[in-house]
Amino acid sequence: MQTALLIEQLLNGLQFGVMLFLMAAGLTLVFGVMGLINLAHGSLYMVGAFACAAVAAATGSFWLGLIASLAAAAAAGAIVEMTVIRRLYERDHLDQVLATFALILIFSEGMRWLFGSFPLYLNIPSLLSGSVPLPGGSQYPLYRLAIIGVGVAVAVFLWLLISRTRLGMRIRAGEADREMIGALGVDIRSLYTIIFALGAALAGLAGALVGALQSVQVGMGEPVLILAFVVIVIGGIGSIKGALIGAVLVGVVDTMGRFLLPRAMELVLDASRANTVGAAIASMLIYVLMALILAVRPRGLFVANA
Amino acid sequence: MKRFLTAGLLAVSTALAGTAFAEPIKIGMITTLSGGGAGLGVDVRDGFMLALKQAGDAASEIEVVTEDDAMKPELAVQIADKMIQSDQVDLLTGIIWSNLAMAVVPSAVAQGKFYLSPNAGPSPLAGANCHENYFNVAWQNDSLHEAAGAYAKKEGYKKPFILAPNYPAGTDALTGFKRFYDGELADEVYTKLGATDYAAEISQIRASGADSVYFFLPGGMGIAFMKQYAQSGVDLPVIGPAFSFSQDVLGAMGDAALGVINTAQWSPDLDNETNKAFVAAFKEEYGRIPSLYASQGFDTANLILSAAAKASVKDADAFRAALKEADFSSTRGDFKFADNHHPIHDIHVREVVKDGDTLTNRLVGLALEDHQDVYGKDCKM
Fold it and tell me: If exposure means fewest CB atoms within 10 Å of the residue's CB, which of A52, A203, B7, B301 is most exposed?
């Protein structure tokens, strides 16, 4: 039974990590290529979840909702890039933080205005609602396995996009020297809009996938945003590979910490105190991990443009 | 800045000598109207305003200033200072969260203002830090959890798995549960406040050999937990406090919540005339079923109206005595204040059912009769 539980928790950690990767990939692209700190990335995640919930409620199809979440988040991302973000590339990070924080407030109240103050309903599609048996006699929800699958597919897609296509070449070039690729005649403005919309669509996809597991409500993006920042700092800013490794690392360490630390504490403390102390340490664990990694590798695990 | 001036802008000019009835009262309502916790604040406000609207002329001298605290303690403190100093309110109410209440209430009552809590009931304010100007119209924080513990014991559960976020109200919740359930526990788990992924905890529940699950996870955390629990295939009976299965979150949980047992001092089908009228009027006015929080807002406003009919708020001693009498018709039936100004009331057991297409709660029994919190003995008023 214990081995089964351990396998289940590892899968939980992997699934959590994959979800973080969907968030972190867009964030790290935008940060790495455009040098922009986008606090409103969590809002795009929320837009995706709300779009999916609204369309799924109206049509009864989760899959249409999923498509709507990609479209809505990408559109919101493109509009925000063209109206607000574009003016921020030349400014310093503090101005970017200020402006994108304002966007969080605008998005949150806008969603509340459109959809009301109460959380929306979104359930997983019936196709994925079962569970599969694990070795050791335990069961694992199919939907969570599907999220892992989506995460792997997105990672492969991004890798192909960046290493094998013309767009990817331009993204890499923009990361290395943005003035030079402008001088070579690449339309850097529309390139930035495309990257931003791509990142937004990934965030929206994450929001829709996770919205079916959690609750679709105003402010759902901010806690995930903080974790996504931890992931890209650990992975190395601008590196997709770093985001993937960092996300899985954070997901597994966080989940295993929550599971194992209270048990470890029970060896030295009584049960009730062990639970409280263990839980408190577990919630700090990923930040401890980040501090350790930064102490050894100040620029993260994979430096994008070394 | 959100600011709703309700009735009685002309109040100042019409204060009549001799009739306490018409004495103007200025109420400052600080509540959560934006962000993730807005559903609770909106319900408290709507319930409160409905009572004033129904009171008609009796409320014409009552002015309410409403502001949004965005769930931030520092903002709530600023708003309270502004309401006390520049708006010169007589009475404050509206706060949803215990941490905000702890930041605002002690200083407000020390400045001679009344505070009526429509939701939060942190233990210090019921015990050692109680105050004569502080009245709690909702419950002491532990109460619903204590009722759940009593229910688990009565139902003969032998090994509940209990779960709450790791913050003061979470530890209070599990302490409250254990105060009335003294048997063996499968495990006791604290999660991170605000966590929305419970895969790790649900795996532990599956492996623990528990015979039931008790959890206190307010707002979005509870929605996430319940959906994931239903998807996980674990089918142990679930018990929670009403906060986890209130009308504001049921819609988002969907059928995952069906059949779940929860403890509450109020239910939409509670059988008394005041409640029937309240539920019907609330539906009519706002087009949705009221939540627990709406009933608390409604009761708070009616308590104020009952006291205002007897005494002027300017005469603090008389007004306080009038509040203490709790001479109003509560949506929860019997209601009176204990010596620490916290309610003595029945706590019921409810079940989540489907009424047509809408999920709601139905009474299935009584958990604790005339329940009073345990902190009152430390209260020296």
Answer: B7
**Which residues partner with B41 through β-bridges?**
none
Name the band, by pLDDT with cuts 50, 70 and 90, for residue A279.
confident
Contact B15, B265 (CB under 8 A): no
The proportion of chain B whose per-residue pLDDT surpasses 90, expressed as a percent, equals 70
Q: Nearest Cβ partner of A118 from B188, B228, B248?
A: B248
CB B106 within 8 A of CB B305: no
CA B275-B276-B281 angle, to 5 degrees, is: 95
* Helical axes A271-296 vs A240-265, angle rounded to 10°: 150
Interchain pair A12, B166: CB under 8 A: no
CATH architecture of B11-139+270-337: 3-Layer(aba) Sandwich (3.40)
CA proximity to A42, closest of A200, A198, A188, A190: A200
Length of chain A equals 306
Read off the tokens for A85.
């973000």
Closest residue of chain A to B200, computed from CA coordinates: A9
Identify the three-state secondary structure at position B190: strand
The answer to whether the CB of B244 falls within 8 A of the CB of B215 is: yes
CB-based contact, B201 to chain A, within 8 Å: yes
Q: Report ipTM for this prediction.
A: 0.77
Q: Which of B190, B252, B254 sits opposite A275 (nearest CB)?
A: B190
Residues of A within 8 A of B206 (CB-CB) are 5, 8, 138-139
CATH for B143-264+347-378 (3.40.50.1100, 3.40.50.1000, 3.40.1000.10, 3.40.50.2300): 3.40.50.2300
Rounded average pLDDT over B28-55 = 91
> Domain spans of chain B?
11-139+270-337, 143-264+347-378
All structural domains of chain A with their residue ranges: 2-296
pLDDT at residue B251, as a whole number: 87
At A304 the pLDDT is: 62
Contact criterion met (CB < 8 Å) for A276 and B192: no
Fold agreement between B11-139+270-337 and B143-264+347-378: yes
Is B252 within 8 Å of A12 when comparing Cβ atoms? Answer: no
pTM for the model: 0.82
Helix (H) or strand (E) holding A96: helix A93-115
Pick the CATH number of A2-296 from 2.60.40, 3.40.50, 1.10.3470, 1.10.8: 1.10.3470
Using a 10 angstrom Cβ sphere, with 0-12 exposed, 13-18 middle and 19 or more buried, the burial of residue B357 is: exposed
B190 close to A (CB below 8 A)? yes
Q: CB of B243 within 8 A of CB of B264?
A: no
Mean per-residue pLDDT of chain A: 88
- By Cβ distance, the residue of B187, B203, B252 closest to A119 is B252
The token duo for B319 is 């007004």
